[in-house]
Design brief:
Largest sheet: 7 strands, mixed
CATH topology: Aminopeptidase
Bound molecules: coenzyme A
Strand order of the largest sheet: 1-2-3-4-5-7-6
Number of helices: 5
Strand content: 25-35%
């Protein structure tokens, strides 16, 4: 995965009410509605954090939302939990990710995903977790993530996980 490099005039900021989130259109209604209606409230309640990628005109080029969760030992593949305790295990969650339609197909999604995973890795240095998980909004999104080492969780076809080793590789820019 290539490192998170964006044009110099772009920036990444924590979502706040000054950002033009109502104009954002990824082509997926759930992804758009989350940013428009829920992301800020959820952040104020300390449930999730959202970062926006801003273009040269401070338009929202893309965004991602991260959270923390737990997954039961029995829901994880055996190779991942081989030496782990049989209980709820901590995971990072890539809850949402989207790129505005006008910027899609130019490698922005790939780099934004890498940026979100670098954030996850940094967070894991303070609050440990064993993997990053996400729920795919549709089959297309699933194909997008599967290109980047995300794997299916047995029994949950739309839930993918990225083992910690792969997260480390992304953070190192491998
Ligand atoms: C999925 C999404 C984030 C991809 O963003 P993007 O900027 O278009 O992606 P990129 O240009 O970085 O593409 C990266 C790679 O993924 C592939 N790709 C992009 N969108 C894809 C899709 N919908 N399905 C399958 N593969 C896809 C590209 O072909 C590219 O592969 P390549 O490097 O081998 O050519 C964007 O299309 C989007 O926001 N979609 C709607 C919302 C959504 O589905 N979000 C994800 C779930 S929350």
């Amino acid at each position: 995965m290539s490192g998170p490099r964006f044009p110099e005039a772009w920036s990444i900021e924590s979502l706040d009410k000054s950002h033009p989130r109502r104009k954002f259109q990824s082509g997926n209604n759930d992804v758009d509605e989350w940013l428009k209606k829920s992301a800020l409230q959820s952040q104020k309640k300390h449930l999730t954090t959202t970062k926006v990628l801003l273009g040269a005109e401070r338009e929202i080029v893309g965004y991602y939302t991260l959270a923390f969760s737990q997954v039961d030992f029995s829901d994880l593949p055996s190779d991942l939990v081989k030496k782990l305790p049989r209980r709820q295990l901590p995971v990072g969650v890539l809850a949402w990710l989207g790129v505005d339609r006008s910027y899609q197909g130019r490698g922005v999604g790939r780099r934004l995903l890498a940026t979100s995973l670098v954030d996850c890795h940094e967070a894991s240095q303070t609050f440990a977790f064993i993997a990053v998980i996400l729920d795919c909004v549709d089959e297309q999104a699933k194909r997008f993530y599967q290109q980047f080492d995300f794997q299916e969780l047995p029994g949950y076809p739309m839930r993918l996980y990225l083992p910690f080793k792969s997260l480390e590789a992304v953070a190192k820019g491998d």
